[in-house]
Amino acid sequence: MSRRIVVIGSQWGDEGKGKIADMLTGRARHVVRFQGGHNAGHTLVIDGQTTVLRLIPSGILHAGTTNHIANGVVVSPSALAAERAELEARDVPVADRLRISSECSLILPSHVSLDAARESGARQAALGTTGRGIGPAYEDKVARRGLRVGDLFNPSRLRERLEVALDYHNFVLTQYYQVDAVDYQQTCDDLLAHAEALKPITTDVTNALRGACMAGDSILFEGAQGALLDIDHGTYPFVTSSNTIAGGASTGTGVGPGYIDDVIGVVKAYTTRVGGGPFPTEQDNATGRHLAERGNEFGSVTGRPRRCGWFDAAALRRSAFNNGLSSLGVTKLDVLDKLESIRVCIGYQLDGQRLDFAPAGADVLARCEPIYEDLPGWQSDTSGVRELAELPPNARAYLDRLAELVDTPIDIVSTGADRTDAIVCRDPFG
Ligand code: IMP
To answer: Whose CA is nearest to atom 19 of ligand 1?
Structure first.
């Protein structure tokens, strides 16, 4: 059956979207990244071999899958070249399997310098970004002074536009932040050096996806980061600079919402967050450290330790609505294996009132006190389980309760890092 499915992270990122996307890519003819940049880190483990993808879609390891980087993604040509080289060194035929939109905005070295200057905290409070230049690149896109992938193939236009952009960036860097300027000639030469490799894989991705829709091909739209980091709907200003919710699959690719059949929200069986911002169920204590250790909660891109806490159904209800979730993919259930008792946040207390739906805005969320329900743990090993019936009864009851609290059925439960460590309750591709 031909389906067009969006897979997004429905918490604060790092939910294990890469694993779920990779499991499903065998069924999709096309896999598409639609927002974000190389701030993402999608870890795939296949037959014991780990691959961390940052910008390239998770279908790249599948023969017969075309992978697209669509218009809404911000692209660093040097980061893309490095990721491509890593894959090619392992004989993955990237040029055959990857297409990139000429309309993608470029991340320049000056965007990275601007990100670092802001995060230094000298002029404004640090947000804890990944330092990849993502925010400044999106700012330039919206300000209409950005460069695009297509500009790489028109050297005179590239030089002209780069001069305008760098004039502005260097003014801000040297005068406002009082740090070093970025060299124009070096930037220009470095960018043009990538043109030859990018030209054969650059195309009109929207038109390619239109062709796929007309041909009845299955498409997987692969989100990056998480819905609670969305620029419009997340915990602003502690957010990333793109629309991470499922609607971003339409705006970022040009494939209208009517072409999308289902949205799978990936959730950890608990919650994590990297960087600053409110996190009502955070456990800055022995429980948090237990989850971090068992879940190996360190950023796959930056190596930063992740903050850990209990599952938050109030936040998930907001996310489920923002994304129009059809189903959930629950990951890292096995991380909870040793706990005697597991807490789930079922709502908040705020100014004497009970809330079931996370409130808008970081300041209000920061004042919310979680209301918990305690569920019994299962204290047995669920790693690698592949059948629902093989899960201990308390683990099944835990999953049933999550689905009930979020009012969304569970399609997939991931029980380990490998592609095959999973329970498929319902195959989203039919
Ligand atoms: P930026 O995307 O680098 O601008 O970072 C903005 C915020 O989003 C920071 O709190 C980052 O930690 C967070 N963030 C960005 N990418 C990811 C991701 O892939 N996983 C989790 N958090 C992320």
So the answer is: 40
List the catalytic residue out of 30, 38, 42, 169.
Answer: 42
Q: How far apart are CA 172 and CA 399, in angstroms?
A: 50
Residue to substitute in 58, 111, 229 for testing ligand 1 pocket (most ligand atoms within 8 angstroms of CB): 229
CATH number of 105-196: 1.10.300.10
| 30 carries an active-site annotation | no
Give the position, in ligand 1's atom list, of the atom nearest the Cα of 41.
19
Check for a shared fold between 105-196 and 268-424.
no
Q: Indicate the residue type of 38.
A: H
Q: What is the mean pLDDT of residues 73-84?
A: 97
Per-residue pLDDT tens digits for 137-190: 999 999 999 999 999 999 999 999 999 999 999 999 999 999 999 999 999 999
The sheet that has 410-414: what strands, in order across it? Answer: 202-203, 98-101, 66-69, 30-33, 219-222, 4-9, 262-268, 327-331, 410-414, 422-424
Quick one: pLDDT at residue 34? 98
Centroid of ligand 1 to alpha carbon of 304 (angstroms): 11
Q: What architecture (CATH level 2) is domain 4-100+203-259?
A: 3-Layer(aba) Sandwich (3.40)
Contact 43, 18 (CB under 8 A): yes
| Runs of H (alpha helix) within 194-339 | 195-198, 205-215, 248-253, 286-294, 313-323
Per-residue pLDDT at 245 exceeds 80: yes
Fold of 268-424: Adenylosuccinate Synthetase; Chain A, domain 3 (3.90.170)
Best probe residue, ligand 1, of 7, 12, 43, 225 (max atoms within 8 Å of C-beta): 225
Give the pLDDT confidence of 10-46 residue by residue, as tens digits. Answer: 999 999 988 898 889 888 999 999 999 999 888 887 7
CA of 127 to the centre of ligand 1 (A): 9
pLDDT band (50, 70, 90) for residue 47: confident
Annotated active-site residue 190? The verdict is no
